[in-house]
Write a structure and sequence with these properties.
Blueprint: H1 7-15, E1 19-22, H2 26-30, E2 38-39, H3 48-51, E3 58-62, H4 66-77, E4 83-88
Parallel strand pairs: 1-2, 1-3, 3-4
Length: 95
């Protein structure tokens, strides 16, 4: 539905140095997040260049995949090139 990245593809990207970005609210992030994730709430996406590196791959996630899909579109419009949408945090399986 949202053209998401598979969990195994995300793990490969992350093992190669991609940034894991949680686009849920800061309150949701504080309740628990994936290992090594950076919080960049969707409502703060315009600050992306201050928080994440544009020269590294980015793997986005949220709860359902809706916010991460929107975040991917915004980041691509802002000039980020290697942006991937994991969708829901439930798709993460890099243990």
């Amino acid at each position: 539905m949202f053209n998401t990245l598979t969990g195994s593809d995300a793990c490969k990207l992350l093992s190669e140095g991609a940034q894991l970005v949680d686009v849920r609210s800061s309150g949701e992030f504080a309740q628990g997040a994936l290992p090594n994730a950076v919080n960049l709430p969707l409502q703060s996406i315009t600050n992306a260049k201050n928080i994440i590196a544009a020269d590294k791959a980015i793997v986005l996630y949220c709860v359902s995949g809706a916010r991460s899909s929107s975040a991917k579109n915004y980041l691509v419009q802002m000039g980020f090139e290697q942006v991937y949408d994991l969708g829901s945090f439930k798709n993460y399986n890099c243990e």
